[in-house]
TrEMBL record:
<keyword id="KW-0539">Nucleus</keyword>
<dbReference type="GO" id="GO:0005634">
    <property type="term" value="C:nucleus"/>
</dbReference>
<keyword id="KW-0479">Metal-binding</keyword>
<dbReference type="InterPro" id="IPR003347">
    <property type="entry name" value="JmjC_dom"/>
</dbReference>
<protein>
    <submittedName>
        <fullName>F-box protein</fullName>
    </submittedName>
</protein>
<dbReference type="Pfam" id="PF12937">
    <property type="entry name" value="F-box-like"/>
</dbReference>
<comment type="similarity">
    <text>Belongs to the JARID1 histone demethylase family.</text>
</comment>
<keyword id="KW-0408">Iron</keyword>
<feature type="compositionally biased region" description="Basic residues">
    <location>
        <begin position="12"/>
        <end position="30"/>
    </location>
</feature>
<dbReference type="GO" id="GO:0000987">
    <property type="term" value="F:cis-regulatory region sequence-specific DNA binding"/>
</dbReference>
<dbReference type="InterPro" id="IPR041667">
    <property type="entry name" value="Cupin_8"/>
</dbReference>
<dbReference type="GO" id="GO:0046872">
    <property type="term" value="F:metal ion binding"/>
</dbReference>
<dbReference type="InterPro" id="IPR036047">
    <property type="entry name" value="F-box-like_dom_sf"/>
</dbReference>
<dbReference type="InterPro" id="IPR050910">
    <property type="entry name" value="JMJD6_ArgDemeth/LysHydrox"/>
</dbReference>
<feature type="region of interest" description="Disordered">
    <location>
        <begin position="1"/>
        <end position="41"/>
    </location>
</feature>
<dbReference type="Pfam" id="PF13621">
    <property type="entry name" value="Cupin_8"/>
</dbReference>
<dbReference type="InterPro" id="IPR001810">
    <property type="entry name" value="F-box_dom"/>
</dbReference>
Length: 433
């Protein structure tokens, strides 16, 4: 599978073992397939999802009458009748759907997940749950806990409660204002019925439990992390996040002007995001950005403000991120997250070349001692970081500054021309019809 189709999924979670039949060279059982047609008949071949093919075999590929149930961006665009199937399948569009499902059934899990990032059409077919049922039964045998779908089951197969309790025995994690072992937190979260459940949000999980830190890989899209040049002096940057339904994070901007990715291993999270220049309704940041006044709880915001923002010209970006999916959060964006069910996730903040100048500007603000977080040496972080970048990547900052000046000049030139074109009072130029 081409590297461009690298998986945006926490496999991430590495599989260390395979089912006996796979390790010893065994092959998956040959499949027989029923009729499938992801593209409805007629001249319009856009998605009109019908009963999907499932091959019934001893390994359990599918079950009769299983449906493709699109969630999130599995759904095609509601407007128009664009042929999303053919456009998204490219040269594979000639294959009937039942044959295409069988072909994808030959792929290993990592390649199947990677393929889902190529287009909407391939996302739909690659997320077809009977494909993942075969993989789960083939690789895991009976050693799995069903997580609502076969795809989610495969992704969460390693990070079960039992595994996490085993590797973290004797360790405590940050839970709100206190620390507690994981078994006590699970006991609490199973019985919590309050509006604001305590949230496990720990930045030192990989130091406390090295197995958890080595169980995942950073997706290729986010591997450039310039804060690495600081070594152990870098600010906190990665967290394990565990919480019951209803827990989450109220509106905030990620620390130190970093960007972030958040990968759901188990459960589902609803995200609401606003661009930097649009503070969410009910959220009032101070002029220097050091303080934010917002509703007491997430549910209070949804009850009192959510409806209002849906009529704004600049409406929020919303999504539900499920097991095996990742959300990218650009620097400076406001975001709220609420768990729709018990969820486990990994998140990391990072600095790329695209964001380096923003971070440096943020770190040298006059009130850096109040704004910078995740490190004890807040005041000197800018100088340390800049010097480390100059040593590791000579000339990078200067090059980025020149490029930024060129882009700013180009934007100014474009705006200046438009102003002269539409401002009748200038007398220099105006449209005449």
């Amino acid at each position: 599978m081409p590297s461009a189709f690298h998986s945006l999924r926490p496999s991430l979670i590495k599989r260390k073992h395979r089912h006996k039949s796979t390790r010893r060279g065994g092959k998956r059982p040959k499949k027989t397939s029923e009729s499938t047609n992801l593209a409805a008949g007629g001249e319009d071949a856009s998605f009109d999802l019908k009963s999907s093919a499932s091959a019934s075999t001893a390994s359990g590929r599918g079950g009769g009458g299983s449906l493709v149930q699109p969630l999130g961006n599995l759904l095609p665009a509601a407007a128009g009748r664009a042929n999303l199937r053919d456009a998204g399948l490219g040269g594979l569009r000639q294959l009937p759907d039942d044959l295409l499902v069988d072909v994808l059934g030959l792929l290993p899990a990592r390649d199947l997940a990677a393929l889902s990032a190529a287009s909407k059409a391939l996302y739909v077919i690659s997320s077809h749950d009977p494909l993942w049922r075969a993989i789960v039964l083939d690789e895991l045998g009976g050693d799995f806990a069903f997580a609502g779908s076969w795809r989610a089951t495969y992704i969460a197969a390693k990070w079960t409660r039992e595994y996490l309790l085993e590797v973290s025995a004797g360790k405590e994690f940050a839970v709100g204002p206190v620390s507690m072992p994981l078994d006590r937190y699970f006991l609490y979260s199973d019985n919590a019925e309050e509006e604001r459940p305590l949230y496990l949000f720990d930045a030192k999980f990989a130091d406390k439990v090295p197995e958890m830190g080595s169980d995942y890989e950073v997706p290729v899209y986010f591997q450039e992390d310039l804060f690495k040049v600081l070594g152990e002096e870098r600010p906190d940057y990665r967290w394990v996040i565990i919480g019951p339904a209803g827990s989450g994070s109220s509106f905030h901007v990620d620390p130190n002007s970093t960007s972030a990715w958040n990968a759901v291993i188990k459960g589902a999270k609803k995200w609401v995001m606003f661009p930097p220049e649009v503070p969410p309704p009910g959220v009032h940041p101070s002029s220097d950005g050091a303080e934010v006044t917002s509703p007491v709880s997430i549910m209070e915001w949804f009850m009192n403000f959510y409806g209002a923002c849906r009529t704004w010209e600049k409406r929020p970006i919303e999504c539900v991120c499920r097991a095996g999916e990742i959300v990218f959060v650009p620097n400076g964006w406001w975001h709220l997250v609420i768990n729709l069910e018990e969820s486990i996730a990994i998140t990391q903040n990072y600095v790329s070349r695209r964001n380096l100048l923003n971070v440096l500007d943020f770190l040298k603000r006059p009130n850096a001692s109040e704004l910078v977080s995740g490190t004890k040496d807040r005041v000197n972080l800018h100088d340390k970081f800049r010097n480390a970048i100059d040593t590791a990547y000579p000339g990078t900052i200067s090059q980025l500054e020149v490029e930024a000046q060129q882009k700013a000049a180009a934007r100014k030139k474009k705006v200046a021309f438009w102003d002269s074109a539409v401002d009748a009072n200038t007398g220099g130029f105006k449209f005449s019809f």
